[in-house]
Amino acid sequence: MPILFLILISALVLSLGGILGAVTLLLSKKHLQNILMVLVGLSAGTLMGGAFLHLLPESFETMEIHQAMLITLGSIVLFFGLEKFLHWRHCHRTDCDVHTIGQMNLIGDAIHNFMDGLIIAAAYVMDVNLGIATTVAVAFHEIPQELGDFGVLLHAGWKPKKALIANFLVAMTIVIGGLFGYFLSEQAESIVPYLLPIAAGSFIYISASDLIPEIRQERSMRRSVGSILMFVVGVGIMLILAH
Fold it and tell me: Which of 41, 108, 145, 156 has its CA 20 to 30 A from that of 211?
């Protein structure tokens, strides 16, 4: 099966996550919170597993370990800086413009989805199984993220229909990233191996800085245990796909 076709199918399926926000309109706040915490645990586990069991081992085969780890560390620093920049001016001291939050959230999500597309394309070009594992890791991260993004837009005062359309259009940037990554790799194959440790760094950063802290702050013992168990399940899924 052509690599470009696999990349497009994976990207299109992931872009459908942009309409998942509609689910939040059908659930009570309590039920939504229960579901989100389970998904956060699963997402954190698949991202960590994807980074350490797939992306980093694959990058070690194409470059020196020291170089791969240095790029991974640089990627973590890069995504930390990017996140700080995108959230800058959301709230200044005690003044906060919720409409700005909605707009900045969409900009940040678009950049993130474009990077996901690049990462998936690079993984498929290297190895089909690596591409599938990376897509699974991204998918489990996208579900809670898209639900959360929809909630942010509603909080910013957007009407549900408008928020749903905007979220879906932004989710489609993953397709653009996938196409860009594929044609980039066709013309400059030497660049593709460097995207793998960059992707690993982004996976580690998202899991460690955004998702795991959410689990740690959960006060409900039942939801905490469930999230930790789902974290282990997420790592287990990546371990199975590694073999």
Answer: 156
